[in-house]
Amino acid sequence: MEITRRTVLTGAAVLGAAAAIGAPNPANASTRSAAATGQAANPKAVERWGMHEIVLNGPDKGNPYVDVTVAAVYEGAGQTITVPGFYDGDGTFRVRFSPPQSGQWRWRTDSNLPALRQAGKVDVIEPASGNHGPVQVVPGGYHFVYADGSPYRQIGTTSYSWALQSDEKCELTLNTLSTSPFNKIRMLVFPNVPAEATDPFVRTGTGPRDWDPTRIDPAYFRRYESRIERLLALGIQADVVLFQPYDTARGYSDMTRTDDERYVKYVAARFGAYRNVWWSMANEYDGIKTKTVDDWDHLFQVLQAADPHNRLRSVHNKNIYYDARKPWITHASIQSAGAALDGLRAHFHRQFALKPVIFDEVAYEGNISERWGQLSGEQMTHRFWNTFVGGTYCGHGETLNPEQKPSISWLGQGGTLNGTSAPRLAFLKQIMEDGPAPGINALQPDWDYDIAGVDSQYYLRYFGESAPTQWEAILPSGSGLSYQVDIIDTWNMTITSAGVYNMAKVPRGAQDPARPTVALPGTQWIAVRFTRV
Amino acid sequence: MEITRRTVLTGAAVLGAAAAIGAPNPANASTRSAAATGQAANPKAVERWGMHEIVLNGPDKGNPYVDVTVAAVYEGAGQTITVPGFYDGDGTFRVRFSPPQSGQWRWRTDSNLPALRQAGKVDVIEPASGNHGPVQVVPGGYHFVYADGSPYRQIGTTSYSWALQSDEKCELTLNTLSTSPFNKIRMLVFPNVPAEATDPFVRTGTGPRDWDPTRIDPAYFRRYESRIERLLALGIQADVVLFQPYDTARGYSDMTRTDDERYVKYVAARFGAYRNVWWSMANEYDGIKTKTVDDWDHLFQVLQAADPHNRLRSVHNKNIYYDARKPWITHASIQSAGAALDGLRAHFHRQFALKPVIFDEVAYEGNISERWGQLSGEQMTHRFWNTFVGGTYCGHGETLNPEQKPSISWLGQGGTLNGTSAPRLAFLKQIMEDGPAPGINALQPDWDYDIAGVDSQYYLRYFGESAPTQWEAILPSGSGLSYQVDIIDTWNMTITSAGVYNMAKVPRGAQDPARPTVALPGTQWIAVRFTRV
Asked: Which residue intervals define the domain DUF5605 in the entry (chains A, B) (predicted)?
């Protein structure tokens, strides 16, 4: 899968480059050097929503992370887009651009280093099969869609420090993801559990706080982005978490505002051109005691200004919901275990955000002593179904291991999944994909239908923990229409036809006069689906 | 009950006034003329949180509503407060001030009419018994408290156009309120149903739109405020609704921005000094198609600037929640029937607002054909209990009458209450008053206790529609402590002692090892209360 084509320039000489990243290996940091030694004199075509990279070689002196500014202006398809670049070590600077439209684009770099001032052009071709573009929010709506219009049904997971583990461990994690239902993974830039990569900034001594926030280690970020590339090849969104409250020993999330700004701009320039990147400003932002809401607001504005690709932006809470209506937030990212216990509790979060809602943390499937990590597979799956019928989305995580330690679990380090929810989430994902695009909503949530769907087209009733033997099937609409009715066992992953129901008008709804009820198996975790025929 | 003392001045001559409004009669408009003819040469004392009124007589020419500016600067208790005045017709201007502190206050008026420039002083004495000051939000919290620290437990009702009915009908409504549990009533300034008072602005013809937004009828507002005074005497908060979407024939809520600003400033100056006034910017604000959210934001800022008394401010929605985190909002005023069906659904609205939440409309007890007006008494009461255990507040209304017409119901015009919920809401109010101040909260809402209260001190579990015969009483805290346990039948209004429970530590909570369960009657609408002894 072609991800990137690069244009490499050294000094004033255009070397050009079109190094395709075929199957990038997260085990090495060769990506940069491969690109830096690319041969093509003129850049070849780049896919729409792929990545064009300009490589600029300048002097390796002073502290380019702080001292050098570089950016490119791209012009094409009637648009002019300014794209900030970044320093990648050894005198190499890069500018990465993911073209939003096909056609020829001309570019010109500017810098406070004359050697980095260059110009060129690139042909942007139609995307190959499988490249649907970045995920976006349906305008004014509560669901997601790829840039090419394909629906995106979020089934997320979290593995905080997976990308910072050894190459072998990362291969194991990627292998697990490749057969999982998950199409988004929340992942920290700064580690929260033991990891192989621990030093985004240059060390100045042996103590935990002996590091220099004005000097980055490019290899740390190069390694992290190689994991983003691998996720892209798997069609998985990388929900990149910029700050977190758990590394109080190192204190990477406790930098000054100036250092934070430089870091945010760096990751925006470095990672933002990957079309599978989402930004999560922080995990449990309100657990970071060195920053105020004003600080977060400011950093969001810095990020927004530094990210010409306008990737999705949110922030994850501990106790205090961030105001998801703020203009720089594209969707709400909520931590709440209780909200996912009822579809309408989930739904009301949409009323607040007026944007899509993802319950990125609803506690985890596991066996640890902490209450947030001991859900059964049934409970984890139940929360996904509740958020689904609330017109929202959910996130998985697993803290299940023989030692009952969250740090070495999937949640902390990745590896393998050993729980029972993932296959059920794959089943749910198929139910979503078989349903209406871009998604479903709670229908008439102020009244007592407790039904999700899309009016006339599709209805879904989920019974959760209750185990009824029948249901008086009154839909909020649909009279005069016929529906294929299916009994879905969300845990045993079976779909059983109940035949076609012909709905007639009843007070405030529709019901089949011949079959006013639907027979149910009397077990838990059952849903009933009405699909218009 | 002494509400007001007035200082009356004509031209440059200080007549002074100290007309106490004893038992004001809403049947006449004599309040103003009584004050204007007050005799005291020097103003007597005014209670703290009472009202001092300066009456200024100037020329009755031109259009003073538009042309004349008048305001007083009050200085006392180390504070300087600028209080806008208003025109009351017949050449009379008034400035109304409710002093926040006792002691001597000096005042000086300024105006673009030289005749209205005066000065004086007033002694502010301690409040009489029953005067607790205005209701305020507990700082940083989710509950309300009077200015003197007394708890205020909101049990609201709505009667949109009661204040605009005949004097006889208003007496009937006030008589009903006097024996009801309600301590807040939502009431429109502009009528939404047939009323005796229909013309806040001067008529210019016989068509519905034949009125002049630049010319008010002071008598309309004088009549309305006489109802506010009567509510004050009953200890009831007047939730004054400034705009509403239902009078599309007259279109009072469809004025221009300039006319809206003048109207908002007028009611702020005229009504704001009554300590029982709350501002609701609109009913179903998003139903008013001639205004945008920007317009509402603007009008809130106009109101805030025009109201030195800083009365509580909110706005009521139809479908789209207004963002209650905006700084001019003091509490959320929510319309949602579905949110009041579950305590935690209600609770999450606090997470959104970070302020107190009142579900001012959750559908109404009644017998009309519209779905929003056909709750049973049980359903109305149930919604109050749900919002209570969610740490929030609720609003009542009644659409119950032989003709099944909302317009002539309590909701539309006031009168008598014929439903069955009000006595149960009085019972609930007593439960609230017997509980901790300023209020209770959902405890550990992310976990599965489903218990409200205040840690260690007080716990309340409400079973709603379910009818269990016993409950495994595990509290989220309280081990080592003893509690009086009561079984509360919220519908039959009985409290039955279950004796004292001695709680010991169990995993993640507290339970009485001798009595791990509480026996319940197996009927609906039961609550269990644990009060620390």
From this structure: 447-531
Question: A280: helix, coil or strand?
Answer: strand
Contact B446 A338 (CB under 8 A): yes
Q: CA-CA distance, A303 to A240, in Å (whole number)?
A: 13
Q: Which DSSP state fits A375?
A: B
Closest to A133 in 3D by CA, of A107, A98, A95, A178: A98
CB contact under 8 A, A344 and B342: yes
Interface of B with A in 349-408 (CB under 8 A): 349, 351-352, 354, 363, 371
Could A320 and B354 be called an inter-chain contact, meaning their C-beta atoms sit closer than 8 Å? yes
Q: Which residues 410-469 of chain B have a CB within 8 Å of chain A?
A: 445-448
Question: What's A178's DSSP letter?
Answer: H
Do B348 and A345 lie within an 8 Å CB cutoff? yes
> Closest Cα partner for A466 from A343, A338, A360?
A343
> Is B4-125's fold the same as B146-434's?
no
Mean pLDDT value of segment B434-438: 97
Rounded CA gap, A283 and B307, in Å? 41
CATH topology of domain A444-532: Immunoglobulin-like (2.60.40)
φ and ψ of B338, to 5 deg: -70, -35
| pLDDT value for B191 | 97
Residue in this structure with the two tokens 């963002």, named with its chain if needed: B323
Identify the pLDDT of residue A124.
97
Residue A477 has pLDDT above 60, yes or no: yes
Q: Which of B317, B329, B336, B345 to mutate to test the interface with A (most CBs of A within 10 A)?
A: B345
Selecting from B338, B352, B448 the residue whose C-beta is nearest the C-beta of A344 gives B338
Residue of A382, A459, A359 whose CA lies nearest to A428 = A382
Are the C-beta atoms of residues A243 and A287 closer than 8 Å to each other?
no
For the segment A389-403, what is each residue's pLDDT rounded down to a tens digit? 999 999 999 999 999
**pLDDT exceeding 90 applies to what percent of chain B?**
89
Confidence of residue A448 (pLDDT cuts 50, 70, 90): confident
How many CB atoms lie under 10 A from the CB of residue B475?
24
Contact: A349, B354; criterion CB under 8 Å: no
Q: Quote the DSSP letter at residue B521.
A: -
ipTM of the complex: 0.90
What residue type is A157 in one-letter code? T
- Report how far Cα B48 is from the mean position of its chain's Cα atoms: 20
> A83: closest CA among A42, A44, A111, A113?
A111
φ/ψ region of A444 (left if φ > 0, alpha if ψ in -120 to 50, else beta) reads left
Could you give the angle at which helices B377-389 and B421-434 cross, rounded to 10 degrees?
Answer: 20
**Distance between CA atoms of A82 and A107, rounded to whole angstroms?**
9
CATH topology classification for B4-125: Immunoglobulin-like (2.60.40)
In CATH, what class is B146-434? alpha beta
Select from B337, B342, B354 the Cβ nearest to the Cβ of A345.
B342
Other Cβ atoms closer than 10 A to B185: 28
- Rounded to an integer, the average pLDDT of B149-170 is 98
Maximal CA-CA distance, chain A:
83
- Domain residue limits, chain B: 4-125, 146-434, 441-532
Q: Which CATH class is domain A135-434?
A: alpha beta
Residue type, B278: W
The torsion angle over the Cα atoms of residues A175, A178, A182 and A185, rounded to 10 degrees, is 50
Rounded Cα distance between A271 and A242, Å, is 11
Q: B441-532: which CATH architecture?
A: Sandwich (2.60)
Task: Flag the least confident range among A30-39, A508-517, B179-188.
Answer: A30-39
- B128, two tokens: 């009489």
Pair B241, B188: CB distance under 8 Å: yes
